[in-house]
Amino acid sequence: MTTTHPSKKNTVLIVGAGPAGLTSGAELVENGFKVDILEKDPEFVGGISRTARYKGYRFDIGGHRFFSKSAEITEWWRKRLPNDFIQVRRMSRIFYGGKFYDYPLRAMNALGNLGVWASGLCMLSYLKARIFPIHPEKSFQDWVTNRFGSRLFNIFFKTYTEKVWGMPCHEISADWAAQRIKGLSLIKAVWYALLPQKKKSGSGVVKTLIDQFEYPRLGPGMMWEKTRDDLLKGGAGIHMGLTAIKIKREGSQVISIVSEDPSGAVKEWFADSFIISMPLQETVLKFEPPLAETAVAAAKRLRYRDFLTVALMIRQTALFPDNWIYVHDPGVKLGRIQNFNNWSPEMVPVPDTTCLGLEYFCFEGDGLWNMSDTELIELGKKELGQLGIVRPEAVFDGCVVRMPKSYPVYGPDYQEDVNAIRRELEKLGNLQAVGRNGLHKYNNQDHSMMTALLAARNLSGANYNVWQVNTDAEYHEEGEDSGKKTGRLVPEKISN
After folding, report:
1. Distances in whole angstroms, Cα of residue 389 to Cα of each of 212, 330, 345, 356, 459
2. Per-residue pLDDT tens over the stretch 228-245
3. Beta-strand pair 51-54/287-288
4. Do the domains at 2-46+71-83+219-302+411-485 and 304-409 have one common CATH topology?
5. Are 307 and 60 spatial neighbours (Cβ–Cβ below 8 Å)?
6. CATH code that applies to domain 2-46+71-83+219-302+411-485
């Protein structure tokens, strides 16, 4: 085993070259720190915000809108890519029963698609929910039904939610709906349809209704590839294809991290401080000697939802104008379709072709995850044909990207488990966890970046608690907001 010892004070080792790891690295290099970053992927930086490539085609792992209520984060993005952002009109619709439904719901569009009789039944269902609401509101199903009625719940919310999270809606806590669909109701959707409102920056914007966003012309990975290049120019080391396998500590200090490359060669990295953005479960289980048994047991209970993208190249254009489509048809496994021509034309290099990203939500090791790439491409072609969106014979190529641990899952005792881990990690004076997976929070890209900026500033003498970044990528002082309300909520199973 080789070792690398710090050559001077203020050395920082970062695990993970996603948005959090690269953001903290950039902040630290600008402030004179010596930085090394270990990244498990052998090729791509950016984590789930990377832009994958296949034969010149570029595609997201999920869609990544560049929108934040944090002026600091927006300025950070624009400073990094001053001439490479384009303005993209947001358009996303629901596909159900062979028809497209505007999202947010628009009265005339829904009426036309459902027909007068079905629309009338939906309105009666809505009125019934308003007159006889479900009390108490325990589940996601209760919450949405009270605001849209049971018929619209079944059409526009149930199938997609259950595909994404792998849980029935009646078992998901209402807390997630209250945050995720905050500010939106059937009445508000109709109001926006009939009297479109001017979108103002700041707190007056209902996030679900944002209709324009910025986007790097070559995809979100462009941001993180540029950050990587800036870090290298600033003297940082970025080491690809290295997996952290041990975190060594002595008392209340981490002393080193041991990495392993694909050939099995190991290397020990020493530093003064450590910033970790790999999954919180993995972080806890890699300590040597182990953390307290309460933290280890809590880490073993953490769960994740995994994700794969089937990118298909099609000899056809103008398939649909949307950035993405939510597939609510229960007859297919497909959850969402990205049309990358409509994110940025520069991502599709061959004229008269389209690149679609078919998104499937799964658990690592289940039937979908274990299908071969060839089988998944054939499944994607079949389901596009079944939905009537693309003829299977129009698909001329494809590839698959698997992304494990894309979504942290909140179980009934999620917060207690994270708090148990957090108490142990906070005893380590020179280690900080950051980012979506590092904190086991369903963060957006800008939330992850803010946690990283605060962690980096702590090494220059600040005293922020990175767990207190809230849903608008802003910082809340300890005590102003509970840990459960920071970041984005995800579906939580109802406790008995």
Report:
1. 25, 16, 20, 11, 52
2. 999 999 999 999 999 999
3. unpaired
4. no
5. no
6. 3.50.50.60
Q: How far apart are CA 296 and CA 285, in angstroms?
A: 6
Phi, psi dihedral angles at 360 (to 5 degrees): -120, 135
Q: Which long-range contacts (CB under 8 A, 24 or more apart) does 334-338 make?
A: 334/358, 334/359, 334/360, 334/380, 334/383, 334/384, 334/387, 335/160, 335/163, 335/164, 335/359, 335/360, 335/361, 336/160, 337/95, 337/389, 338/59, 338/60, 338/62, 338/63
Length of the chain: 496
For 277-429, where are the E strands, in sequence order? Answer: 287-288, 303-314, 324-327, 336-339, 354-362, 395-409
pTM equals: 0.86
Each residue's pLDDT tens digit, 436-466: 999 998 888 999 999 999 999 999 999 999 9
* pLDDT of amino acid 150: 94
Distance CA 436, CA 29 (A): 22
User: If DSSP states are collapsed to H, E and C, what string results for 64-89?
Assistant: CCECCCCHHHHHHHHHHCCCCEEEEE
Rounded distance, CA 438 to CA 21, Å?
10
The answer regarding whether domain 304-409 maps to CATH 3.90.660.20 reads: yes
| Beta-carbon count within 10 A of 203 CB | 7
Is cis: bond before 104, omega within 30 of 0? yes
How far apart are alpha carbons 387 and 21 in whole angstroms?
40
Radius of gyration, CA atoms only, the chain: 23
Write the DSSP symbol of residue 157: I
Rounded to whole angstroms, how far apart are CA atoms 161 and 326?
A: 10
Helix (H) or strand (E) holding 258: strand 253-260
List the chain domain ranges. 2-46+71-83+219-302+411-485, 104-208, 304-409
Report strand pairing: 354-362 vs 303-314. Answer: antiparallel
